[in-house]
Amino acid sequence: METPVREDVPFPRLGDPAAQSREAVGTKAAALSALSAAGFPVPAGFVVTQAALQDNPAGTTLAERLRKAASTAGPGPFAVRSSAAAEDLPDASFAGMYESYLRVEIEDLSAAIEGCFRSAETDRVRAYQASVARRETAEAAGPADPSAPAAPPGPAMAVLVQQMVEPAAAGVAFTASPLTGARDEIVISAVSGLGEKLVSGVSTGEEWTVRHGRPHRTQGAGSVLTEPSALGAVRPLRRGWQFISAAHRTSSGRWTTPATS
């Protein structure tokens, strides 16, 4: 049975002010929404919050609401990903903790979104939350008390739905060296096609370091990126980082190079 939702709870679109509150829509969606509003090239999309899933028998079904929202984001297929307030932070990335669904057709959005929400209740997420809480306690007040109660669940999660992009190359870029913390280096890990095989650990990818505007390949054969394409990835990253760094504490991000025909 489909989950009924309230008619008066919108799905805020990326770029709307309602989709720029980290507490409401999570770190990932808020950052992408702010970038979209500022004119950066962000695939169109919208955010499904916990409030939109409240039980209301008199309302329309989730699938009906999603079809309407998706029509403003593009023809599909879509990428469906988590966006939590405690996610994508320097000390709590939650990388790989939640489920993501790619190439989702419009008729399958409801199931994918509910799958993302369910993944927030898994044992691995709870264990990661407890680990982060213990580390924060130890840093603030010395060793944690082993008899202390388990950490409470983290902030409510939202789900981000975006028009799917089929890239020539994709990956993860760090705006500071993950090894030394140097701010004059950008480190890029890239694979051909979708970046999912990189972030899932299936592939280590090709690695580039860009320092003072000069790209240098440190791993791989050079079949994924060239010096010009590595620099092409860095330019919007620098501008985007400068834009969001004051409001969103994050030191890495995903990027794609559009496929050409």
Shape: globular
Helix content: 25-40%
The profile of the biggest β sheet is: 5 strands, antiparallel
Runs in which pLDDT lies below 50 for 5 or more consecutive residues are 1-9, 88-94, 147-155
Total count of strands: 9
The CATH class of the largest domain is identified as: Alpha Beta
Topology as H/E string? HHEHEEHHEEEHEEHE
Radius of gyration: 19 Å
Number of helices, where a helix is a run of at least 4 consecutive DSSP H or I residues: 7
Strand pairing plus helix content: what structural class?
alpha+beta
CATH superfamily of the largest domain: ATP-grasp fold, A domain
Supply the number of structural domains.
2
Under CATH, the topology of the largest domain can be stated as: Dna Ligase, domain 1
Mean pLDDT: 77
| Distance between the amino and carboxyl termini | 42 Å
Strand proportion:
15-25%
Reported CATH architecture of the largest domain: 2-Layer Sandwich
User: What order do the strands of the largest sheet run in, or round the barrel if closed?
Assistant: 8-7-6-5-9
